[in-house]
Each structure stands twice: as C-alpha cells, then as structure tokens.
Amino acid sequence: MTTTTTTAATRRTGERGDVRLTGIGKTYGSFTAVHPLDLTVPEGSFFALLGASGCGKTTTLRMIAGLEEPSSGTVHLGEQEVTHLPPYKRPVNTVFQSYALFPHLDIFENVAFGLRRRGIRSVKKQVGEMLDLVQLGEQARKKPHQLSGGQQQRVAVARALINHPKVLLLDEPLGALDLKLRRQMQLELKRIQTEVGITFVHVTHDQEEAMTMADTVAVMNAGRVEQLGPPTDLYENPRTTFVANFLGTSNLLTARTDSVTGEDLVVEAGACTLVLPRARCSAPTTTGGEVLVGVRPEKISLTHAEDADTIPDGRNRVTGRITSAGFIGVSTQYVVDSPVCPDFEVYAQNIDRDPRLVPGAEVVLHWNPAHTFGLDAAQSPLAGTAEDAAAGGEGTGAR
Amino acid sequence: MPLKTPLRWLRRNLVVLAGLFTLGYLLLPNVVVTVFSFNRPRGRYNYAWQEFSTEAWRQPCGVAGMCGSLSLSLQIAVWATLGATVLGTMIAFALVRYRFRARGPINSLIFLPMAMPEVVMGASLLTLFLNMGAQLGFWTVLIAHIMFCLSFVVTAVKARVMSMDPRLEQAAQDLYAGPAQTFLRVTLPIAAPGIAAGALLAFALSFDDFIITNFNAGSTVTFPMFVWGSAQRGTPVQINVIGTAMFLLAVVCVLGAMAVGNRRRRRTG
C-alpha cells in the first residue's frame, strides 16, 4: 500500500523545510529495495521511518541525503528539487548509524568540519555553543575514540546540527547504545528538535523509540509504506496485520461478517458474536466475507467464569482457560486458550488482583467494542510478529 | 630452598631476558661497524683492530667516488619512494574501492615482485632494457626500483584502506566536502599511516638494493655497489662511518616519532 499525501496542497503553500518524495524508488538489479512511494514530511516535524532491517527505510533516508541515487522519482526540499544534486550540495545533514566521526580530528574539529568546508573562518563561537548544547564543552580537544558511546552520539548530532540544515536525517542513531542510555538520548534528541525546530527524519527499527519521539510515523515493510500517521493513530487503529503486530502486540481472530447495523459491524468468530465500529475496519465489509478482528491485550478485562454475570452488557466476550500468567510488577500478562484463538494475550493492570486467576482457571475475556479493529483477512495474521521474522517474512514483499 | 629462588627469578624475567638477547643479536653487527669506524687500519682491510682514530669521521668523503655513489643512492631512493608511493597508493585504492575486469588477477600479480628471487627479476629486467635499446644508468635503476617497491607500498596501503569505514567519506560529503576536499581532509589523513609505512619500506628497500641494481646500472655506481666493489680491493673506514651515520639517523627518527606520539597522547588523554 502506497501512502499518497496530497503533494498539490503542499506545493501551493510552499513550505521551506519540508521534504517531498514523489514516486521515489530504488532497485538494485532485480531486487527492489524501495517501491515507488510518495511521502511528505512537513516542516519542523519529527518524522520516523519505522521498519525491520531490510525494509528500505535506510535506503529512503540515503536517497534524501543524496548518498543513494534513486531509480525513479524526485526529491524536493522545500521548493528546491535536489534529486540529482550530490550530497555536498544538499542542505541536509545526517547522523550516521555508527556516528562516522572522523578519527583523526578532535571533537572541536569534527563539529567545525561542515562550517570550514563552507568557507566560514571564525568557527570558535559557534562550535563552542553547539558543544554546550549537547553538553560536551569540556571534551572539545579529545579524540572521538576517547569518548563513550553516548558522547560520540551527541558529537555526531552536534556536527550535523551546527550547519543549520533544512532537514536532519538520523540513521538508527541510538542503535549502538544500551537501553538506559537510549531512553535518555531519546528525550535529549526530542528536546534538541523542539529547541532548534528543524525537520527531523529518523530511521529506526525500534517501535517504542519511534512512538515516543516522532509526531508522525511511517511504518515500512518490504520496500513499501504500510501505514503513516501519528503514533496513537497507528497503534489504536492499525490498517494492516504488519502494523498491528509490529507496533506492540495484537490478538487477531479470523471471523465472518454477519451483518452491518448502522455504524457497527457484527461478526462471528466460532461461537462468539463480536461487534466493531465500521470506521475501524479497513477490510471490505461484505456480508459473509472473512475479516480479521483485532484487539490489543491491554484493552481486555479478565473475569473469572463464576462472575460472568457481573459483566455489563454490550461488551465483546470470549471465553477461555488461562494457560499461563506472568507477573511483571505493574501488570500481569496472561495467555488464554479460547476456542477462537489458542493464545489470546491479556495484559491486566495489578490494581485488584483476583487470586483465582491462575493457570487452568476458566475465564471470560471482555472489552469495549470501540477498541476492536478489523483487518483484511487476505493478509497473513502473523506478518510483523517475531515468528514471522524468524521464518523469513510473510512472502508478499520482494526479497 | 636454594634451587627454587633462581628458577622463580628466571621465570619472572624470562620475557625481559629474551628481549635483551634478541636486541643484542640484532644490534651486535651495528656495534662492530661503529667501533671499527674509529679504527686506523694497517693495510687495505679494516678487519682487525689497530688503534683509535677519528680521521675517517673528520673526512667522511675522503675516499674517491664514495660520496658520489652515496648521493646517487639517496637520489634514487627518494625518487623511487615518491614514484612507488604515489603509484602504489593509487593502485591500492583502485583495488579496494572499485570493481573492474582483471581486478582479481591484478590483486595476485601485484605480489609477484615480492615473491620472485631478485636475481631472476634483475636478469629479466636487463633483458628487457637491452631489447628496448635503453641506455643503462640512473633511469633504468630508478624504473627497476619503483617496480619492486610498488608491491610493498600496495600491500601496506591496501591493508589500511580496507579497514577504513566508507561512511567516513560519506559523512564528509554530507558535511559539504566535495570529492577533492573529501580526499584531502578525510581519506588521505586516515590512510596516511599506511602510506607512510609503505614509503619507509620503499626507501629502505631502494637504498640498500644491490642485486637488481647491479644488473641494470651499467657503469653507474650506487652506494651498495661501491661497498661491494671496494670489498674486493680493500675496505675504507669511511664505509663504517656512513653505515654508523645511517644507523644513528634511523634511531633518531624512531625516537623522535615516539616522542611526538607520546606527547600527543598525553595532551589528548
């Protein structure tokens, strides 16, 4: 699925720092790394390209940087077409995955590199300010290898930002850091972006990172943009099984469309009748047709079968038996074996723990129908899951 | 435990001892050369110690033809180093960075001069020069030296270029450096240690080459050829003076490089 954002509208308003990709694609021989796609990154936004390795996200980024020649399509930065400009003539800068700091230059000269190449003589003040922004003023005369991973990462950001690019490109900038430092740097990068107001395009395979940092996330899979939108939108209303599984976890059940009543869609999964809003179903809604019904594990409540009559009317219900319960402090993760789905996942907040909810207990799962979404049943329900990645992809993309 | 103590001492200092022995083994010939540069030999051969004298040191060019051959050797070494380093660096970059036809065979053939016996190489070069009707002398020697130094430079530079992250050059381009600037500011400085190593090797190999030079020099006499020639008729003390001076120069260079490296490390560390 290609995301078509209206290029005409942005062309009229003529924003200066937006990135506009039109029909851009990249093939290597017979391998298609990126299928022709249209993408507009609005000025001043924090945009994330999210996907597993080999999905084409880095290639897309490198085409914006000019490090990769697109096989088709055009790249616009604001009003300027840059498709065939070499990287050193583009007003964009990149933070590379391995930072790519120059090992023979000290931190000061690394940061000053871009300014000096543009013939700016007095760089001292600017470099000093930039190093202060990333809190590395003390380290100016050290060589890159003498700094820690997090410090090197900040030097890479400073080296790019000092040039005031129209767009800052970040290629998995936090991939080499440990978890705690990564969390810290996510907030740091977000702070810097808000401070300088430059458009950031961030490539990552970490869905949490993309969701915490970005205003808009484009989920890529096998060289295509699967879905694009604000993180909450993508999470709450995924439109493909890949997005449903890659962003967080989803329970997906195969169901048959029973009837359409007003704004709601009534489907049957085994013996259960479930309701979901029509607006949240991205599949064609023909009566009798198959549809994948999805619900997030944390939206579901778990009630012991003995108390089934206390569940309010109007909620979607599924019965089953707990097969495992994992206590992780703030919540408990249950796996429930139900007739409609053999491993239904439920995350329950540990507010009032019911001591009867142990493996083997008969339970009723219930949730608000508004939290249900529907997907096209023609896709593999496993796309984007860990098992799918291990099996080598769902096989729909060009690999 | 009278036996255990010296054994333990030996075990603890074995590495130091081995190091000292190796150093002694390596340096002993140099010591002999240095000592005999202060000798006043009786007769033509400087092989037996007679009495102390600084005469040879006061007149290093006192032997006919020696300083001429030394200066010729230095000239050839400098030009051969320059030629081999420039060509070798370009070949190394081409072999690592580009995919072209015959890249594989070239990659292996470049090692041939290193593996081939010098006598074979010298003789075949002579055949080549004679068939081409070339005048033997400075130029034939220089061409021969560049040829056999080349493979050493290529090997040294290639190792360095291969370990270079191509993203460094992409980063330079991303930071507004054009192709020439990228090469001068990033590629060359990072490849410099490999290039320097190759150049030093080339200089040392060219300066003391005898076999190939002897085949292709015609009536030209380089320093190693002069030493060889005089060894037949008698060895002037000045040869020891030049040898000692070269050795001291090399030691000073190494110590200087170490001092610079130490100071840099201390400043940045």
UniProtKB/TrEMBL annotation, chain A:
<dbReference type="InterPro" id="IPR003439">
    <property type="entry name" value="ABC_transporter-like_ATP-bd"/>
</dbReference>
<keyword id="KW-1003">Cell membrane</keyword>
<dbReference type="InterPro" id="IPR013611">
    <property type="entry name" value="Transp-assoc_OB_typ2"/>
</dbReference>
<keyword id="KW-0813">Transport</keyword>
<protein>
    <recommendedName>
        <fullName>Spermidine/putrescine import ATP-binding protein PotA</fullName>
        <ecNumber>7.6.2.11</ecNumber>
    </recommendedName>
</protein>
<dbReference type="Pfam" id="PF08402">
    <property type="entry name" value="TOBE_2"/>
</dbReference>
<dbReference type="InterPro" id="IPR050093">
    <property type="entry name" value="ABC_SmlMolc_Importer"/>
</dbReference>
<comment type="function">
    <text>Part of the ABC transporter complex PotABCD involved in spermidine/putrescine import. Responsible for energy coupling to the transport system.</text>
</comment>
<dbReference type="InterPro" id="IPR027417">
    <property type="entry name" value="P-loop_NTPase"/>
</dbReference>
<keyword id="KW-1278">Translocase</keyword>
<comment type="similarity">
    <text>Belongs to the ABC transporter superfamily. Spermidine/putrescine importer (TC 3.A.1.11.1) family.</text>
</comment>
<dbReference type="InterPro" id="IPR008995">
    <property type="entry name" value="Mo/tungstate-bd_C_term_dom"/>
</dbReference>
<keyword id="KW-0067">ATP-binding</keyword>
<comment type="subunit">
    <text>The complex is composed of two ATP-binding proteins (PotA), two transmembrane proteins (PotB and PotC) and a solute-binding protein (PotD).</text>
</comment>
<dbReference type="InterPro" id="IPR005893">
    <property type="entry name" value="PotA-like"/>
</dbReference>
<keyword id="KW-0472">Membrane</keyword>
<feature type="domain" description="ABC transporter">
    <location>
        <begin position="19"/>
        <end position="247"/>
    </location>
</feature>
<dbReference type="Pfam" id="PF00005">
    <property type="entry name" value="ABC_tran"/>
</dbReference>
<dbReference type="InterPro" id="IPR003593">
    <property type="entry name" value="AAA+_ATPase"/>
</dbReference>
<dbReference type="InterPro" id="IPR017871">
    <property type="entry name" value="ABC_transporter-like_CS"/>
</dbReference>
<dbReference type="GO" id="GO:0005524">
    <property type="term" value="F:ATP binding"/>
</dbReference>
<dbReference type="InterPro" id="IPR017879">
    <property type="entry name" value="PotA_ATP-bd"/>
</dbReference>
TrEMBL record, chain B:
<keyword id="KW-0812">Transmembrane</keyword>
<feature type="domain" description="ABC transmembrane type-1">
    <location>
        <begin position="70"/>
        <end position="259"/>
    </location>
</feature>
<dbReference type="GO" id="GO:0055085">
    <property type="term" value="P:transmembrane transport"/>
</dbReference>
<keyword id="KW-1003">Cell membrane</keyword>
<keyword id="KW-0472">Membrane</keyword>
<dbReference type="InterPro" id="IPR000515">
    <property type="entry name" value="MetI-like"/>
</dbReference>
<feature type="transmembrane region" description="Helical">
    <location>
        <begin position="136"/>
        <end position="157"/>
    </location>
</feature>
<keyword id="KW-1133">Transmembrane helix</keyword>
<feature type="transmembrane region" description="Helical">
    <location>
        <begin position="186"/>
        <end position="207"/>
    </location>
</feature>
<dbReference type="GO" id="GO:0005886">
    <property type="term" value="C:plasma membrane"/>
</dbReference>
<comment type="similarity">
    <text>Belongs to the binding-protein-dependent transport system permease family. CysTW subfamily.</text>
</comment>
<feature type="transmembrane region" description="Helical">
    <location>
        <begin position="237"/>
        <end position="260"/>
    </location>
</feature>
<feature type="transmembrane region" description="Helical">
    <location>
        <begin position="14"/>
        <end position="38"/>
    </location>
</feature>
<keyword id="KW-0813">Transport</keyword>
<protein>
    <submittedName>
        <fullName>Polyamine ABC-transporter integral membrane protein</fullName>
    </submittedName>
</protein>
<dbReference type="InterPro" id="IPR035906">
    <property type="entry name" value="MetI-like_sf"/>
</dbReference>
<dbReference type="Pfam" id="PF00528">
    <property type="entry name" value="BPD_transp_1"/>
</dbReference>
<feature type="transmembrane region" description="Helical">
    <location>
        <begin position="76"/>
        <end position="96"/>
    </location>
</feature>
<feature type="transmembrane region" description="Helical">
    <location>
        <begin position="108"/>
        <end position="130"/>
    </location>
</feature>
<dbReference type="InterPro" id="IPR051789">
    <property type="entry name" value="Bact_Polyamine_Transport"/>
</dbReference>
